[in-house]
């Protein structure tokens, strides 16, 4: 871009407001910068009297933007309009999706030994001797230059980021990569780099970003490792509770390979990357100062109550051991009890069914303790080529022989699901176009053959047939009539079959009374229902909905209240442990979940 373009085209600017409780901190800043850098226009950010480059993590972080602050981004040059709208969109979604780290409520405790109280990173119980962290720097040989080590470190962080894409915490690596890029640009040698890190860390002291100094140390250590300077840490070979001033985010992975059963850190915060990654491991972790404790003595780490008990009495140990065993039992019992009924504490029986896609997942579901099939996603049965009637019939027969209660959904193609042998028109909004039951009109031969196969396979069996993406009563009636015409054409008696529908289009919520007259059952598909309620595509790369939004539970409540036919739920929400108690409270009696979630879902129900 020429200097003329950069400075003489009219700048575009917009004011952005920080609404997240955590402020505009390292991870969202890194995502913002990473997008900003894809544009060649100049992008600056101004807050109060300070204007900085918005393509640098450090510069942007130096504005220390907290919740409630508004700042302006100004863009000059090529494609600044497009950049502005994309950055605006990203910023809004970063603010909206920022998860607040919940402060865990401490349970009351009654130990006799000395209790050191702290802040809970993650809950659990551990009983073991403490081990105080110590590390030694070892110089090995290395032929790499500082610049090469820097590049290798950046590559490593990029790999970690892309490998962990599915994980919420992948952005930690992106943040570290952006941080390293901006620090690296300013340092030519390791000494300069080390000095810069010291200086930047000192600037963070006492600020909200204090805990990010462990990211700086982590980066230094990563680069040093490529220069042959290794940090050697030894851990005991028996179970231990680790005590350290702080740990580096990159050390958490290694730590999980040791005998560690709990962690106490002195100088971190609930929001540090170290704490986030520790929380992911599931082990009990606390922020507290237990420096005075002598090593090797057994302590109790009870992070339900947020305490470390030093010099526990035999009674304390007995109490903690009992709690520990109960926890372990719960974890190991779930798979063992997978074939047992799932009854709530009050004795109400809840059916746990499976969502399956083919014969293999049907067999897995059987093995995992499914009591029936709540959703057979038939679109995944034949993914490559158009199947013959015989092949389809065989597949359905095989699956139908495994369970008594089976719901098979007619092809739900369109939106995010495609099949190479079903051609759909190119549409601007495929999620709002030819999808699900709308195929009855556009592809009648395919649906007709599918229904024919299902009818042959279900003779003498009361299979439930479900239509996807129903948005009006007429659509349902037309689909059912279509099915009856197919049966009549092939002279098959289908009087034993039931016909129902997915509830995944919001219009249906207001039509339940009318649907009651024509359907035999309902199944709530929260995956699509959520996307259509919030108008956020379920596959959208940045926009995310809140899976536990009260809106979704209100929608379910509406259905359950008005429905006079059985209602089950087959969206992902059915296996969400935070949703299960609410779903049961709303009187849901059948949850259909993925085969691997059956045992755990049953166990969650037993605890309600
Ligand atoms: C749903 O939408 O919740 C559902 C179960 O169907 P699918 O995920 O197959 O669209
Ligand atoms: Mg759906």
Looking at this protein, list some descriptive labels.
4 domains; 23 strands; Glucose Oxidase, domain 1; 9-stranded mixed beta sheet; alpha/beta; binds magnesium ion; 39% helix; 608 residues; binds phosphoenolpyruvate
Radius of gyration equals 29 Å
Helix coverage percent: 25-40%
CATH topology of the largest domain: TIM Barrel
Tell me the name of the CATH class of the largest domain: Alpha Beta
Subunit arrangement of the protein: single chain
Largest sheet: 9 strands, mixed
Rounded average pLDDT: 90
- Domain count: 4
Q: Low-confidence spans: pLDDT under 50, at least 5 residues?
A: none
CATH superfamily of the largest domain: Phosphoenolpyruvate-binding domains
Structural class: alpha/beta
Residue fraction in strands: 15-25%
Number of strands: 23
Task: Give an overview of the whole structure.
With 608 residues, the protein is of the alpha/beta class. It is built from 21 helices and 23 strands. Strands 15, 16, 17, 18, 19, 20, 21, 22 and 23 form a nine-stranded mixed sheet that branches. It has an eight-stranded mixed sheet with strand order 5-14-13-7-10-11-12-6. β16, α12 (359-367) and β17 form a beta-alpha-beta unit. Phosphoenolpyruvate binds next to β17 and α18.
């Amino acid at each position: 871009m020429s200097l003329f373009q950069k400075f003489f085209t009219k700048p575009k600017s917009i004011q952005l407001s920080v609404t997240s409780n955590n402020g505009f901190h390292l991870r969202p800043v890194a995502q913002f910068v990473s997008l900003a850098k894809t544009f060649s226009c100049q992008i600056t950010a101004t807050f109060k009297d300070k204007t900085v480059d918005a393509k640098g993590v450090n510069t942007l972080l130096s504005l220390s933007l907290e919740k409630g602050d508004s700042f302006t981004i100004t863009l000059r040059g090529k494609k600044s309009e497009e950049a502005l709208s994309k950055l605006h969109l990203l910023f809004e979604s970063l603010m909206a999706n920022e998860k607040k780290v919940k402060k865990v409520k401490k349970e009351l405790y009654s130990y006799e030994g000395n209790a050191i109280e702290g802040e809970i990173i993650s809950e659990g119980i551990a009983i073991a001797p403490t081990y105080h962290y110590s590390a030694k720097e070892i110089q090995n040989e290395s032929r790499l230059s500082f610049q090469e080590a820097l590049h290798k470190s950046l590559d490593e962080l990029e790999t970690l980021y892309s490998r962990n894409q599915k994980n919420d915490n992948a952005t930690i690596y992106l943040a570290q990569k952006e941080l390293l890029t901006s620090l690296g640009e300013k340092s030519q040698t390791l000494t300069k780099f080390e000095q810069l890190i010291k200086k930047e860390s000192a600037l963070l002291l006492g600020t909200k970003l204090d805990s990010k100094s462990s990211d700086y140390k982590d980066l230094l250590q990563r680069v040093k490792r490529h220069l042959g300077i290794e940090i050697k840490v030894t851990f005991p070979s028996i179970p231990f509770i680790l005590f350290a001033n702080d740990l580096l985010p990159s050390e958490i992975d290694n730590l999980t390979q040791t005998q560690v059963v709990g962690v106490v850190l002195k100088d971190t915060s609930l929001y540090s990357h170290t704490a986030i990654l520790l929380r992911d491991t599931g082990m009990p972790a606390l922020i507290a100062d237990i420096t005075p404790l002598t090593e090797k003595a057994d302590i109790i780490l009870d992070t339900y109550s947020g305490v470390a008990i030093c010099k526990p009495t035999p009674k304390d140990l007995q109490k903690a051991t009992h709690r520990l065993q109960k926890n372990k039992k719960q974890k190991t019992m779930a798979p063992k009890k997978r074939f047992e009924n799932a009854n709530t504490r009050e004795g109400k029986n809840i059916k746990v069914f499976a969502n399956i896609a083919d014969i293999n997942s049907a067999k897995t579901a059987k093995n995992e303790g499914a009591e029936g099939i709540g959703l057979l996603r038939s679109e995944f049965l034949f993914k490559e080529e158009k199947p013959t009637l015989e092949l389809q019939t065989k597949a359905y027969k095989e699956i139908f022989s495994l369970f008594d209660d089976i719901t098979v959904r007619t092809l739900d193609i369109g939106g995010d699901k495609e099949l190479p042998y079903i051609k759909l028109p190119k549409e601007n909004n495929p999620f709002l176009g030819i999808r699900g039951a709308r195929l009855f009109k556009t592809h009648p031969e395919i649906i007709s053959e599918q229904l024919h196969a299902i009818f042959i396979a279900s003779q003498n069996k009361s299979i439930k047939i479900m239509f996807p993406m129903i948005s009006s009563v007429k659509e349902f009636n037309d689909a059912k009539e279509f099915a009856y015409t197919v049966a009549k054409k092939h002279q098959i008696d289908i009087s034993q079959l039931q016909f129902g529908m997915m509830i995944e289009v919001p219009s249906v919520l207001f039509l339940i009374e009318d649907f009651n007259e024509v359907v035999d059952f309902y199944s709530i598909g929260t995956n699509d229902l959520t996307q259509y309620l919030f108008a956020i595509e379920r596959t959208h790369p940045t926009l995310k909905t809140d899976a536990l939004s009260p809106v979704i539970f209100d929608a379910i409540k509406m259905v359950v209240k008005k429905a006079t036919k059985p209602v089950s739920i087959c969206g992902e929400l059915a296996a969400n442990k935070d949703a299960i108690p609410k779903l049961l409270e709303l009187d849901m009696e059948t949850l259909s979940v993925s085969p691997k979630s059956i045992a755990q879902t049953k166990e969650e129900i037993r605890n309600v």
